[in-house]
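User: I've been trying to design a sequence by hand for this structure and keep getting stuck. Would you show me what you'd pick, starting by listing the structure so we're on the same page?

Assistant: Good idea, let's start from the same input. This is the structure you sent:
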């Protein structure tokens, strides 16, 4: 009986040890794809968000000879702001509202392999900022990730287009929407929110790639516990956690007033609860941090 328990315990430990590296690098397919400059597996090309291609076939000497090879009409006549995602022979094209997706086979005359047409309430368009756009798709763990304008984050099977999971990230009924591209990093997909102009308190949030479960959520304003600040935050640069780096002169933010920058030895670093303490003056109300910011 004891031997059986030891075998069972060893089996569990081995399973955990094997699973942990896989979990940490669940988006290994994305990392591999980004190493090939023929792919575009990230909304901005690479994690550095520079948006530049390493391909050199087109250069300043021959760019004048470029001609259209083929075209594809999405049927949506609003702003198309994000780039397509390209992995191998597949190109994934997205649209502005209603955020349709087309998967095209580049080796077969751009044949539509699958398409996704989300059902969204048209009223969402009334609270979208800066046109009814979508700024891109995420890719990783064999999935295409779409952050819909209505706040739904959707994971689709990259081969078939079948929905794997979805999660409600924001609520347009309170003015919170999304136009951003989801960013896949290792075993998480990161997204945020729009709507600060409507008094929405925004955030950055991470969901687990496998099932869409919540990993963590960090608000842009509010208590340290909700902005995920702790004793180690900015430990190497404590002056980043300063209440102010300026001194009021003649009343500061008043007619005839101004500000003077404090010297480094006058700045008090390591301050806590800046997400609540620095949001009182702008809104001129108590707990102004609850009424919008950080989108």
């Amino acid at each position: 009986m004891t031997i059986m328990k030891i075998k069972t315990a060893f089996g569990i430990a081995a399973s955990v040890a094997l699973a942990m590296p896989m979990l940490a690098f669940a988006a290994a397919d994305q990392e591999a794809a980004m190493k090939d400059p023929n792919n575009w597996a990230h909304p901005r090309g690479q994690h550095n968000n520079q948006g530049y291609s390493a391909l050199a076939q087109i250069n300043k000497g021959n760019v004048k000879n470029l001609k259209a090879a083929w075209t594809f009409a999405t049927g949506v006549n609003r702003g198309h702001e994000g780039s397509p995602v390209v992995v191998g022979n597949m190109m994934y094209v997205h649209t502005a509202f209603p955020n349709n997706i087309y998967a095209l086979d580049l080796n077969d005359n751009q044949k539509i392999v699958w398409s996704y047409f989300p059902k969204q309430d048209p009223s969402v368009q009334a609270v979208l900022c800066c046109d009814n756009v979508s700024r891109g798709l995420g890719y990783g763990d064999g999935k295409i990730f779409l952050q819909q304008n209505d706040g739904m984050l959707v994971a689709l099977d990259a081969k078939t287009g079948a929905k794997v999971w979805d999660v409600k990230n924001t609520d347009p009924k309170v003015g919170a929407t999304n136009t951003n591209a989801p960013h896949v990093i290792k075993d998480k997909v990161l997204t945020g929110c729009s709507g600060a102009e409507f008094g929405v308190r925004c955030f950055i949030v991470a969901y687990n790639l496998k099932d869409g479960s919540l990993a963590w959520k960090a608000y842009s304003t509010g208590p340290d516990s909700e902005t995920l600040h702790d004793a180690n935050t900015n430990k190497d640069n404590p002056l980043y956690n300063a209440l102010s780096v300026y001194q009021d002169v003649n009343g500061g933010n008043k007619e005839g007033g101004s500000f003077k920058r404090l010297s480094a030895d006058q700045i008090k670093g390591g301050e806590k609860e800046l997400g609540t303490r620095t949001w009182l003056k702008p809104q001129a109300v108590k707990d102004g941090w609850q009424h919008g910011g950080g989108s």
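That's my pick for every position. To get oriented when you compare it with your attempt: The chain has two domains: 25-46+75-219, 225-291. The radius of gyration is 24 Å.
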